[in-house]
Amino acid sequence: MSRGLLIKNCRVFSLTEQQGVSIDYKRGVVGIVGNRIVFVGNDPDAVVGFEREHGTELEVLDACGMLLMPGLINLHNHVAMTLMRGYANDMELQSWLEEKIWPFEAKLSPEDVGRGAALGIAEMLLSGTTTFADMYWHTDRIIEQAIQSGIRVVACPAFIGDRFGGYVDRVGEMIERYHGVAGGRITVWVAPHAPYTCRPEHIKDSLSLCKQYGVGVHIHLSETVSEVETVRERYGRTPIRLMQDLGVFDYRTLAAHCVYPTDEELEILRNDRVTVVYNPQSNMKLASGIAPISRMLEQGINVCIGTDGPSSNNDLDMWDEMRTGALLQKVATGDPRVLSAERVLRMATVDAAKAIGHAGELGVIAEGALADLILIDLDQPHFTPDYDLMSNLIYCARGADVDTVLVDGRIVVRSKRLVTLDFKTVKREVSQTLRDLAQRM
Length: 441
Description:
This protein is α/β, with parallel strands linked by helices. It has helices at 44-54, 93-105, 110-126, 139-149, 167-178, 181-184, 200-213, 225-235, 239-246, 263-271, 280-285, 293-298, 318-333, 341-347, 350-355, 389-395, 423-440; strands spanning 4-15, 22-33, 36-41, 59-62, 66-70, 72-77, 129-136, 152-159, 186-188, 191-192, 217-221, 253-257, 275-278, 302-305, 373-377, 402-407, 410-414, 417-418.
């Protein structure tokens, strides 16, 4: 039998599949065997039986004073852009891309991307993110870092402009090599960058991979006014309508941003079950606009949350993103009731799990679920008093409050220190990469 792990003496909190319903044990216990949760509750007899069954092979984690909850899921990222954190600021999106980001990226080697990814993964794990969806180049290097670190990833090799040659063959080989490895922690999807940067025929050709392998699509959509205008001028359609016509939404889709959807496009997103990924801080920093998230939720669209890359955010802290996302919708609508604490926490857990095909397995604490869990140190001034735990998590919590992180039943952060990565080595290698890049540029 796989080695067991018992987490006890903690407050256990999890949302359920049913909105408005949660479980909350004040002194709860969770038992894990392998990568799955086998029991959760506060029954002393169950604890004694679990301890007896596993004997000396059982690891017991006393989490007194802590909160156990599901790990957070960041559904839109460009993790290797940690290398560009603070590099280009106070610019609009198109100038930011064309004058700064794309020239910088043209100098990146596969090794550079791997090192940048390691830094971003370290940042995410330490702040309680256990799964992320990424869109970038040299994706195999990002996957290798995910395998080593223990994090869960939906890795999405991107293409842009005329750089489509050989994409289908390359990504097909990547899917066959990596999809489902590391106990299922690694999945590989297709990633056309955006409607205004990719030719329609290339987007359509890339979908052959979705049909052949059953994978999904990760794409930027309707991010700026200029994007919408450009797509209308070129193709006579709005970006979301164009993607529907090309067949993108025939497959599981993560549509990042969606700041400027029309009423017709909102119906398309709902009817085609597209997941919209809300990126409030990136959209604010680049002055791209405010996505109409409250309207999307009213219409039944699945909305999740992502940080976007650390060059346009500039951090990967999902707690900060959730808080900003909630507050921004309130001020944008003039209604303090929209995007409640529960709703935004669901976006980063239960709803995100559904978006990537793990409903009931991720984003919850329940028997049979995957053991992607985090422990939060509640012994902090900003968690006191505790009138409303959900409110405190969204409006008070910080990445630095995360003490312990498990992914797939494995402890990857213990007592606020990385177990699977050596941060000093990661930082040293990133510093060397930045020196090398300075010479190349």
